[in-house]
Amino acid sequence: MLDISKREHNKQILEYLTCSENPNIILIYLNKIMDNITLELNDRVNIFLRIIAKHAKNIKILEYILENFEKIKPRYDIFFQNYI
Asked: Band of the pLDDT at 7, cuts 50, 70, 90?
C-alpha cells in the first residue's frame, strides 16, 4: 500500500489503512510509516495521531505505543538530517 500511495501520489490510501481493526496490521503499519523517509513529516505525524486516536483503546496497540514510543514517534531530527 505504501508503494501504491507513492506511485499514485494519494495519501488518502495511507489514511484509510489506519481504519483496520486488526491490531497486528496496525503495529506493522505504524513501524513502516515511521521508517518511511519518503513520506513528508506532516504525513507521518498525521498518520501517527490517527492511529493513536482510533486505537488507543486497544490494549495491545496502546502497550506497544507506550513501550516503543521513542522508536516509533515521528522525529524532526531525522527529518532535518536528511536535508543536511
From this structure: low
Q: What percentage of the chain exceeds 90 in pLDDT?
A: 20
Q: Given the C-alpha cell 489503512, which residue does it identify?
A: 17
Beta strands, E only, 1-84 = none
- Cα 72 to chain centroid distance, Å, stands at 8
Selection from 80, 83, 1 nearest residue 47 by Cα:
1
Mean pLDDT of the chain: 77
- Confidence (pTM): 0.70
* C-alpha cell read off for 25: 496490521
8-to-11, 14, 83, 84 alpha-carbon distances in Å: 9, 11, 24, 28
Full DSSP string of 47-77: HHHHHHHHHTTSHHHHHHHHHTHHHHS--HH
Q: Rounded to an integer, what distance in angstroms lies between the CA atom of residue 65 and that of residue 3?
A: 24
Tell me how far apart the alpha carbons of residues 24 and 27 are, in angstroms, rounded to a whole number: 5
